[in-house]
Amino acid sequence: MSLFDISRWGMDDSGSQPTCRVVVHRYVENTFLKKVKKYAILKHCTGWKQMNNEKNTSKDIGDRFQQKTKYQRNKLPRHFMDWDNKPTLYKAYEDPIEELSLPEPEFRNEAKLMEVLASRRSRRNYDPQESIDLKTLSTLLWATQGATSKHDTPFGPLFLRTAPSAGALYPIETYLNVRLVTGLEPGIYHFRPHYFDLELLKKGDHSEECAAAALNQKMVKSAQVTFVWTAVVERSKWKYLQRAYRYIYLDAGHIGQNLYLAAEALQLGCCTIGAIFDEEANKLLDVDGVNETVVYMATVGVLRKSIQDFPSMPP
Ligand SMILES: Cc1cc2nc3c(=O)[nH]c(=O)nc-3n(C[C@H](O)[C@H](O)[C@H](O)COP(=O)(O)O)c2cc1C
Question: What confidence tens digit (pLDDT) does each residue in 9-22 have?
C-alpha cells in the first residue's frame, strides 16, 4: 500500500468507511512513523489525547499529590486566608423531614481506656435481629464528634470536639444509615454536633444501597447502624489549599478510631470501611462528590453470641 494512499489505510475487509481514529491509528501502525512519531500523532487525535492523559494522571496521582503537597522550608505556599469568606463549620439542612434531639450520652460500664485499646478489633459479625437503643447511639455519636468545649470567636461559637481536627476546621460531617435503633425510624440521618441532634433526611431502610456502596460488604446489611462520613472540602482548603486532603483523611481516621473505642467499650462490634464506590455513596446521601464527598464509613452492630469474630481481611 502506498504511503500516501490515505483513502485505503483504514478500509476494513467489508470495504466500509473507517472512523477518523481508525485511519490515524492504521496510518501510524503502517508507516515509518510508527516508532518515531506515533505518540505525537496520537496526541493530536482528541479522543486519544484525553484517554492517554487520564491514564497517565491516574497512574501516579497519589505519588504526585504526596510530593506536590509537601511543606518545604522557605518554600511554604503563599496564601492569605480570606477571613471574610471563612466557610461555616456547621452544616444544617434547610428542610429536613424531622429534627430529633439526642438523649444525653451515657457511660454505663467503666471500661478502662487501656483495656479497651488492648481488646479493640474490627468486628463484622452482627445479629441482624437485635437493636441498639437511642442512648447507645447518642453515646457513639458523642464519642466520634461530640462537642466538649465552646469558645466564642468573631465567626460565632467554636465547639471543640472529642476528636482533634487540623486547624479546628472540622471538615468531616457524619451521616447515619439507621437500620435497627429503638426510638428511631429507619432512615438516613445527618448529625449536628453543635446542636447534638439528628436531621432525618430520607425515610426507610437504605442498608441494601449502603452495602452496595461499600463494595457489597454484607456486614452493612446486618449492622444496626452504619456511619457514613463525608468531607466538606472547602472548610479545610480555605486554609490548607491542596494539602487539605491530607488533613481530611487524618481527621476521618481519628473519628473512626473514636468510634472503634466507644463501640468496644459498649461491647458492640465496629468495623470501619474504606472500600467504597464513591459515587454510589455520594448518591445515597445526595452530596455532589466534589464540594462534599464521602471519605469513610463504619458499621456498628450487636455482636452475634454464637460466632467467634476472627480477624478477616477487607476486600
Ligand atoms: C482506613 C481503613 C479502611 C478499612 N476498610 C475496611 C473495609 O472496607 N472492610 C473491612 O472489612 N475492614 C476494613 N478495615 C478494617 C481493617 O481490615 C482492620 O483494621 C485490619 O484488618 C486490622 O484488624 P483490626 O482492626 O481488628 O486490628 C479498614 C480499616 C481502616 C483503618
Answer: 333 444 445 555 55
Distance 11 CA to ligand 1 centre (A): 54
| Domain CATH code at residue 186 | 3.40.109.10
Q: Which of 272, 277, 297 to mutate to test the pocket of ligand 1 (most atoms within 8 A of CB)?
A: 272
Model-level pTM? 0.83
More confident residue, 302 or 37: 302
**81-107 pLDDT, tens digit each:** 888 888 999 999 999 999 999 999 988
Check: CB of residue 118 under 8 Å from CB of residue 86: no
Ligand 1 pocket: which of 254, 259, 271 to mutate (most atoms within 8 A of CB): 271
Cell 470536639 sits on residue: 161
The alpha carbon of 121 and the centre of ligand 1 are apart by a number of angstroms equal to: 9
Residue 294 lies in a domain: yes
CA geometry: angle 299, 300, 302, nearest 5 deg:
135
